[in-house]
Amino acid sequence: MGGGIELEVFVMTTLDASPEQAVEHDDAVEPSRQRVLVAYDGSSSSAAALTWAAREAGSRGARLRVLFAADAEGADVGGAAVLAEMAHAAGVEIAEEGASWATTLDGGPPREAVETDVRLARPDRALVQASRGADLLVMGNRGRGAIAGALLGSVAFSVIAQAACPVVVVRGDSERRPGPEHPVVVGVDGSDGALASVDFAAAEAARTGAPLIVVAAWTPPDLVASGGHYGVSYVADLGLRAQSGAQASADAALQRTHASHPDLTGEVRLVRDKPAKALVDTSVDAGLLVVGARGRGSVRGLFLGSVSHAAVHGAPCPVAVVRQEDERPPADR
User: Fold this and answer.
1) Over the stretch 188-233, which tens digit does the pLDDT of each residue have?
2) Minimal CA–CA distance to 77: which of 1, 2, 4?
3) How far, in Å, CA of 60 to CA of 109, rounded?
4) 3-30 pLDDT tens trace
5) CA distance 116 to 40
6) Nearest residue to 187 (alpha-carbon basis) of 196, 197, 179
7) For residues 269 and 251, what is the distance between their CA atoms, to the nearest angstrom?
8) What letters, b where the CB count within 10 A reaches 16 and e where it falls short, cover 226-246?
């Protein structure tokens, strides 16, 4: 860091609180009530995320926390206090503006259920830390600030992969939410890791009255890629096995959702295509696309898999990235 310093200061207040009533955490208050956390920096992208998050909080009966983070790293020692004061004042103004606006939205949370969280810290660190007290983290896909602006780079994908709760990335129209006209789409691949995604998708569909579409993609083996070592009939048989396996995985996932949500309307889509393309194409009219966060890296859970990465970049609707419980850091409750 050379001659600079890194500041990590944050203050969280309820919307009606005075500065003198500010506290660092209120996680002990209403411990059983869900919390939706949204990254907000005043940009149009973060405003779309805030709109989606506010209505999600309203539908869940959850508290909404509007988080603004500013990175003060690199300030010279002499000016650090002044920089921190200015950054904090600006952050409070932006966060409170967003929180107040959230309470005016149809379907949003009541005023007493909204709070602000202003942090002078690295945005990725602030978001991961704050996610430990949340049930859902919502972010935009771009923005003017470090929170949303990094979303197309490694910082934001690291946040998604390391968060202690599911993360929703709001793309396109923030009015697009799950409902009778907009299904919840989830991809399965037969792995245990897909179960967390299926459970999340089913709960979201059941709560919003949306149909659930379970997508299983498969591709036939490439005869050329096999180097000619196997005959056409053998390769065709492998293709049938791949198709059959995809069908079985999707059917099992749908049965799982019906066990927990008997009244849920669901269907299986068996798609002959690459998984990422199958999910993006199927989500054209969806209210939410749900994917897992599995990937291969030197640190377990640190990197997104190629499918989830492609979905966050290319889906025409909000994308929820869900990690397995055993891959999440412990939640601070």
Assistant:
1) 987 877 889 999 999 999 999 999 999 999 887 654 445 555 555 5
2) 4
3) 9
4) 333 444 444 555 554 443 334 444 445 5
5) 10
6) 197
7) 10
8) eeeeeeeeebeeebeebbeeb
Query: Scanning the structure block, which residue is given the tokens 């909080």?
Result: 57
Tell me 332's DSSP state.
-
Give the burial string for 180-200 (b: 16+ CB within 10 Å, else e): eebbbbbbbbeeebbbbbbbb
**Which of 134-138, 146-150, 185-189, 252-256 bottoms out in mean pLDDT, i.e. has the lowest?**
146-150
pLDDT at site 232? 54
Angle between helices 123-131 and 154-162 (to 10 degrees): 10
88: amino acid identity, one letter: H
User: Taking the mean position of all CA atoms in its chain, how far away is CA 257?
Assistant: 21
CA distance 252 to 186: 13
User: What is the distance between the alpha carbons of residues 38 and 47, in angstroms, rounded to a whole number?
Assistant: 10
pTM of the model: 0.81
Within a 13 Å sphere around the CA of 36, how many CA atoms are in the beta-carbon half? Answer: 27
Dump the DSSP string for 144-190: SSHHHHGGGSHHHHHHHHH-SS-EEEE-S-TT---BTTB-EEEE--S
Q: Is the dihedral of CA 56, 331, 114, 49 positive or negative?
A: negative
CB proximity list for 245: less than 8 A, separation 6 or greater: 190, 218
